[in-house]
Structure formats: structure tokens, C-alpha cells
């Protein structure tokens, strides 16, 4: 029978023990989570909602919605244009350029035949008549053709002017296309009514005018018509469809109307949208952003990049903030659509950026804020919401960048609220919003800051414990003297307690001098010797009676007792659930240093003793903070033994102690530089000289009494 437990264990051991493989699994998992969250918003529920089709389900609006009804607006526009009349104008351009030109051409031909050849004795009337027959297809009698052939140039010009005048008189008043034949009749009638035009001249002119092509002079003014049409349409108010959140758009089994189809389309139920393409686009965008984020973390915060839990936390907080988008956008906070639509200002991007800044790094908070603001813009299709999310998120990160206590989060909340309010007002003025809409936006922006801080304070303790992250707030809580371990240290090992406090002062000053975490060093110092609580009187600072237990035991046993306080301290810290960073500093504050006093004492007794038997069995300091704690611990204990030393002597002694640790290889695994060591020594000297400065020796009570007696004698 197959042992599934063994199979599962072997698979996990084989494929997921390596950190790289585990991170690949986490990355893939959160990629799917991001895709699922975004797809729920961008991918439509179904894609076949057509007018006239039968709904297979009830559909309720998941948010407030207002949009222009294209069909209804078009109907309104058509109604407004029902009585609209096109704009016409009188345009004689074609009449002048074509109609008159054709009439002029006929008279020019007549003039060429009749008047021009008039003085030519070789051209007879018969010849002219023959030429006129060839040019004009008129039906005239022989006498009439002869009369035309013998017209003078003046007579032809007079006849032409008469015909043109009558034509212009009629056409200049504006003649539409459908009125052209009536206009021609009017022109012809005017010619017939002219008693001066008779016989062959009349017949010729009428024939020319009948043959001429007339063009309308009362024509459509396209530019004026278009302008007037635009003016009329501008007066038509677009018909809007307003949908309340929770409104039933369509019932199951109902035949879809045009209005319902439009609403469903706006809600994302569109036949034209391919869900596969939407998901593919989202997957590509998420992949790009995750690669950019990974690269940013790798180069700006390598400690976070190398910490699996912190990378998971970064992705988790980003996903959680994205998940809140839909929840807040779906809130119904006003019956007025325009006001309710301002709910986008309520999206708590600041929550995510503050948590990332507090738990991880301020640079990551700013970078993730950019990504979250980008998605706010995509979600809402509103650049104003994205701008407020970006600015509010930046304010949140800056507000908690130097967090000292939990109340600082509340102060940051007021800062976020104020900045959000100012940004909303500025954007409202830019996009010309009404005062009531701006007021609602300001209200939501203020609530954004308050809600973000509430979420941050509520989630912070749980995230600290789950992911093993020690924030400055947690450290400050551990610094409280009423903490059980510190209280016990004070009562059972007061010398060690005082030593820890002094080491904390030294370590914090040195850490601040080189840009390390001073608060972390101070808290590590407070707890670094808690292991001495098991055997407090075996340590010199707690030996008040003058009796030293080490005088009665071997150097080897003394070394075992002394070095055991590190292991005991780690066990006590774990039992008290102290943060990992404090436990690490307790374990590393001696590294694998040599217990030199007992080593040399043992060597006097037996020259063959091995040095490794007198060393601490712990790892060397891995961080600057742990190394500073080691030096501060050594320096504080050693300098106390120096009596009446000058400041220069103290500083020289400090540098000798630090050099001894350096030569012993204790700093080989941390990132300290020689410049750091020099600054640390200077900081130690400054603090110690301030604490152990030479004081005025006050006279005793006896000498005071003698002095008074001598003064009395005087």
C-alpha cells in the first residue's frame, strides 16, 4: 500500500527545500491571485446579452452608474430636427459662368456670320444663310434667315443685352431646382412681351433661351446649414440612464430591451468583449509589473529580496489592497449619483503603503504606491482618483517613515486626510465640478486617511507576529522596564541590569554615528545578558559581598558557566517570544570570542590547554547592529575597571579593545568598515567620558565640622 504521507514529504523535500523554488511557487501563486482579483473586475460575467434575447439570470447593478443613452439622445435630436429647415442662399456662380456663357456663344457665332462679313462683297446673303443653317438648328422662314444674316453688330449686341437682362431679372431673385422650367417660361414671356423685339430677332432669341441650360440660383448653404444644425443639436440635453447600486436591471426569462442591453454593456456584459483577450492582457500587465517590482526590490532593498517571508508579505499586502478596491467602489454612500461616484476617493491605498513602509522599507512603500495608483486609474477610469491615491499613498509612506510610537500612525492619518482634501479640492476646480460634488469628494478623502490608519493599526501587530518582523513600535514596547524579563533582571541581577542599560546607551550612540539602527542596538543591549539570570552571582557585576565563586572552581568550569549565559539567554528569549532580531543579537553578542581571563589562568596551571575550549560556541555577528552590541558590551565592562583615566587614555583603551576584536576576526561576517570602526570608537569615547567624567571631591562631614570650629576661633 502506498504511504501518501511519505510521498508528500519526499516531494516537498525534493522540490521545495530550496529557497529559489519556494519563491517561484509563491510568485506563481500571487500571480494567479492578482489575476483573479483583477479579472473579477475587468472580465464580463457573460458575453451574449443582445437586444431581443432572453435573460438566463437576474442581474443587479453592482455599483452606481450614469451614462448617456445613445438611442434616447438620438431620438431627442431627431425630434429637435423635425422642424429644422436648411439654410439656402442665392448663388449666381453657375448661371453666370455656364448659362450666360452658352447664350454669349450663340450670339458670337451669329455676329461672326452676319456682322463680321457684312462689308465683304464676296460673301452674299445666300452664303450667310447657308452658314447660319450649318450652325443653328432653328426652324425659320427664308425671309427670317435673311433678316438675321443682314443684322448689324449693334443690333446683335442690343438683342443679346435684352435677352441677358430678362434672364438675370428672373434668376437673380433665386430659383430652386424644381422651379427652373417656370423660370424659363418667365424669361421667354418677358421677351414676347417686349414690343421692340419682333420677327426674326424674337424667334432667334427665344430659340437660344430655350436651348440654354439653366442652373438653380437658390441653393443649399451647406456651411450655414451645418452650423445651424450644430446649434440646434447643442440645445438638446443628452438623455442619461441612471442606475442605482443594487437595482434589478433584468429578470430571468425577460426579453432584453435596448435600454437594458445598454446598461449591461456599461456594467461589463458586452458581447464584443473577448474574456480570453482581457485575461491575457491582464496577465501580461501583471507579469510586467511583477518583474519590475522584483528588480526594484533586488537592487534597492537586497535584505528584503533575500528574505522569503518579507517578499511574501510584500505581495500579500499588495494583493490585499487591490482586493479592497472592489469593496470600496461598491459602497452606496449617497442617493445622488454624482456624489456617490466620488467614492473612488475612499480607496485606502495609504493603508498598503503605510504597512509596507513600516514593516519593510519606505522605498518599497513609494514604489508600490505607484503601482496601486495605476490600478486605481484602471479600475475607475478616472485620473482624479488615481492622482489622489498616488498623493495620499506618498503622504502615508512619508508619515510613517520615521515611526517612533503607535500614536505616530494617528498623526499620519490626519496628514493623509488633509492632503487628500486639498488634492480633491484642487482637482475639483480643475475639472469644474460643482461645490456639492467637491464637498463629498473631500469627505471621502478625509475618511480615506482615517480608515487607512485604523486598518494599519489593526493589522500591524498580527503581521509583525506572523512574519517575524520587528518594527520600531515593537522595540519600544519591549523597552518598557515593566517587561517581565527586564523586571526580573532588575530584581535578581541589578548589576547586570545596570550594565545592560549602559551598553544600550553606548550602542545606540555608536549606531546613530554610522547610520545603523540605534533602537535595535539599544533593545538588543537591554536583553543581551538575560541568560545571567540563571547564575547571577557568577558574574562580577552582581558580586556585592566580595566573595567570588570562581575562586573555588576550575577555570574550565568557570568558562563553561560564563559561556552558557549566551545559550541560556537565547532559550529564555525564545520562551518569552522575543523578536528574532533580539534573539539573534543575544546569540551573537560574544561571537566565538576567547574567555581570556580563565584561558590564561588555566594556561598557568596547564600549558597544554587548548584555546578552542575557552571560546564561546556561537556565530560571529552577522549585522552591524550585532557587532556594535559586541563592542559596546566589551567596552563598558572593561572601562569600568579604569580608575582616574584621562579622556585620551579612555579613547585609546577603547580603540585597543575594538582592534582586539577586529584582529580576532569577530567582524569578518558583517558589513562594518574601518571608517565605521573609527566613528564607533569616537562615539564610545564621547559617551563614556560624559558618564565617567571626573567629579569634584566633596569634603567629609568631619572636615566640615573642623572647618567650622576653626572659623569660630577666628
Write a compact overview of the structure shown.
Helices cover 65% and strands 3% of the residues. It is mainly α and 714 residues long.
Top keywords for this entry?
714 residues, 31 helices, 65% helix
Which helices and strands occur, and which strands form pairs?
Elements (H helix, E strand, L loop, with lengths): L3 H12 L3 H24 L16 E2 L4 E4 L1 H11 L7 E3 L2 H21 L11 H11 L6 H8 L3 H19 L8 H14 L5 H13 L6 E3 L1 H13 L5 E4 L4 E3 L7 H9 L8 H26 L1 H4 L2 H22 L7 H4 L8 H11 L2 H19 L2 H17 L7 H24 L4 H33 L4 H7 L5 H9 L1 H21 L3 H10 L27 H21 L4 H9 L7 H10 L18 H16 L7 H17 L10 H18 L9 H13 L1
Antiparallel strand pairs: 1-6, 2-5, 3-4
Helix pairs in contact: 2-12, 2-14, 4-7, 5-6, 6-9, 7-8, 8-9, 12-17, 14-16, 14-17, 16-17, 16-18, 16-20, 17-18, 18-19, 19-20, 22-23, 23-24, 23-28, 23-30, 24-26, 24-28, 25-26, 25-27, 26-28, 28-29, 29-30
Q: What does it look like?
A:
With 714 residues, the protein is an all-alpha fold. 65% of the residues lie in helices and 3% in strands. The protein contains 31 helices and six strands. Strands 1-6 form a two-stranded antiparallel sheet. Strands 2-5 form a two-stranded antiparallel ribbon. Strands 3-4 form a two-stranded antiparallel sheet. α19 packs antiparallel against α20. The longest helix is centred in the middle third of the chain and has 33 residues. The radius of gyration is 50 Å and the shape is rod-shaped. The N and C termini lie far apart (112 Å).
Amino acid at each position: 500500500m502506498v504511504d501518501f504521507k511519505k510521498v508528500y514529504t519526499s516531494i516537498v523535500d525534493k522540490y521545495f527545500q530550496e529557497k529559489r523554488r519556494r519563491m517561484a511557487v509563491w510568485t506563481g501563486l500571487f500571480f494567479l491571485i492578482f489575476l483573479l482579483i483583477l479579472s473579477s473586475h475587468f472580465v464580463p460575467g457573460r458575453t451574449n446579452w443582445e437586444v431581443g434575447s432572453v435573460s438566463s439570470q437576474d442581474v443587479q447593478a453592482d455599483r452606481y452608474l450614469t451614462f448617456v443613452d445613445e438611442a434616447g439622445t438620438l431620438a431627442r435630436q431627431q425630434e429637435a430636427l423635425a422642424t429644422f429647415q436648411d439654410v439656402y442662399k442665392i448663388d449666381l456662380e453657375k448661371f453666370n459662368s455656364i448659362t450666360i456663357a452658352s447664350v454669349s456663344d450663340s450670339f458670337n457665332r451669329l455676329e461672326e456670320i452676319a456682322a463680321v462679313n457684312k462689308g465683304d462683297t464676296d460673301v452674299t446673303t445666300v452664303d450667310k444663310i447657308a452658314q447660319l443653317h450649318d450652325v443653328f438648328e432653328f426652324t425659320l422662314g427664308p425671309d427670317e434667315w435673311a433678316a438675321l444674316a443682314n443684322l448689324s453688330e449693334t443690333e446683335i449686341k442690343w438683342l443679346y443685352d435684352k435677352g441677358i437682362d430678362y434672364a438675370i431679372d428672373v434668376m437673380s431673385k433665386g430659383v430652386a431646382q424644381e422651379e427652373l422650367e417656370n423660370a424659363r417660361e418667365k424669361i421667354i414671356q418677358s421677351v414676347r412681351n417686349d414690343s421692340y423685339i419682333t420677327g426674326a430677332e424674337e424667334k432667334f432669341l427665344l430659340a437660344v433661351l430655350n436651348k440654354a441650360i439653366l442652373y438653380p440660383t437658390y441653393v443649399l448653404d451647406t456651411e450655414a446649414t451645418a452650423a445651424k444644425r450644430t446649434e440646434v443639436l447643442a440645445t438638446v440635453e443628452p438623455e442619461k440612464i441612471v442606475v442605482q447600486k443594487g437595482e434589478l436591471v433584468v429578470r430571468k426569462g425577460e426579453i432584453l430591451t435596448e435600454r437594458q442591453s445598454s446598461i449591461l454593456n456599461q456594467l461589463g456584459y458586452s458581447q464584443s468583449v473577448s474574456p480570453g483577450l482581457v485575461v491575457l492582457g491582464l496577465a501580461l500587465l501583471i507579469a510586467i509589473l511583477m518583474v519590475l517590482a522584483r528588480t526594484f526590490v533586488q537592487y534597492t532593498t537586497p535584505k528584503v529580496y533575500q528574505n522569503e517571508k518579507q517578499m511574501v508579505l510584500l505581495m500579500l499586502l499588495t494583493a490585499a489592497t487591490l482586493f479592497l478596491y472592489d469593496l470600496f467602489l461598491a459602497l452606496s454612500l449617497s442617493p445622488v449619483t454624482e456624489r456617490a461616484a466620488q467614492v473612488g476617493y475612499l480607496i485606502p491605498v495609504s493603508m498598503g503603503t503605510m504597512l509596507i513602509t513600516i514593516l519593510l522599507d519606505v522605498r518599497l512603500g513609494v514604489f508600490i504606491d505607484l503601482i496601486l495608483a495605476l490600478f486605481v486609474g484602471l479600475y475607475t477610469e478616472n485620473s482624479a482618483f488615481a492622482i489622489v491615491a498616488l498623493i495620499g499613498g506618498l503622504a502615508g509612506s512619508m508619515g510613517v517613515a520615521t515611526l517612533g510610537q503607535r500614536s505616530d500612525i494617528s498623526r499620519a492619518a490626519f496628514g493623509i486626510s488633509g492632503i487628500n482634501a486639498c488634492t480633491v479640492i484642487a482637482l475639483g476646480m480643475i475639472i469644474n465640478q460643482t461645490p456639492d460634488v467637491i464637498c463629498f469628494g473631500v469627505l471621502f478623502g478625509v475618511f480615506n486617511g482615517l480608515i487607512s490608519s485604523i486598518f494599519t493599526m489593526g493589522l500591524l501587530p498580527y503581521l509583525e507576529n506572523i512574519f517575524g518582523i520587528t518594527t520600531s513600535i515593537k522595540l519600544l514596547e519591549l523597552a518598557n522596564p515593566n517587561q517581565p524579563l527586564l523586571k526580573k533582571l532588575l530584581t535578581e541581577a541589578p548589576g547586570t541590569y545596570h550594565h545592560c542599560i549602559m551598553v544600550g546607551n553606548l550602542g545606540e550612540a555608536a549606531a546613530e554615528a554610522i547610520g545603523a539602527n540605534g533602537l535595535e542596538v539599544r533593545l538588543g543591549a537591554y536583553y543581551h545578558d538575560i541568560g545571567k539570570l540563571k547564575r547571577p552571582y557568577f558574574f562580577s557585576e552582581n558580586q556585592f559581598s566580595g566573595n567570588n565563586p570562581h575562586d573555588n572552581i576550575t577555570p574550565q568550569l568557570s568558562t563553561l558557566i560564563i559561556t552558557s549565559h549566551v545559550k541560556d539567554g537565547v532559550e529564555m528569549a525564545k520562551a518569552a517570544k522575543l523578536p528574532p532580531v533580539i534573539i539573534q543579537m543575544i546569540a551573537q553578542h560574544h561571537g566565538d570570542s576567547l574567555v581570556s581571563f580563565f584561558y590564561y589562568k588555566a594556561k598557568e596551571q596547564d600549558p597544554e590547554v587548548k584555546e578552542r575550549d575557552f571560546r564561546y560556541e556561537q556565530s560571529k555577528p552577522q549585522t552591524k547592529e550585532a557587532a556594535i552590541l559586541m563592542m559596546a558590551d566589551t567596552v563598558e565592562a572593561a572601562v569600568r575597571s579604569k580608575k582616574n583615566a584621562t579622556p585620551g587614555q579612555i579613547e585609546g583603551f577603547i580603540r585597543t579593545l575594538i582592534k582586539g576584536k577586529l584582529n580576532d576576526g569577530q567582524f569578518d561576517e558583517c558589513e562594518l568598515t574601518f571608517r565605521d570602526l573609527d566613528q564607533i570608537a569616537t562615539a564610545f569615547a564621547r559617551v563614556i567620558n560624559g558618564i565617567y567624567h571626573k567629579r569634584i571631591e566633596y569634603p567629609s562631614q568631619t572636615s566640615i565640622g573642623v572647618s567650622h570650629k576653626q572659623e569660630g576661633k577666628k
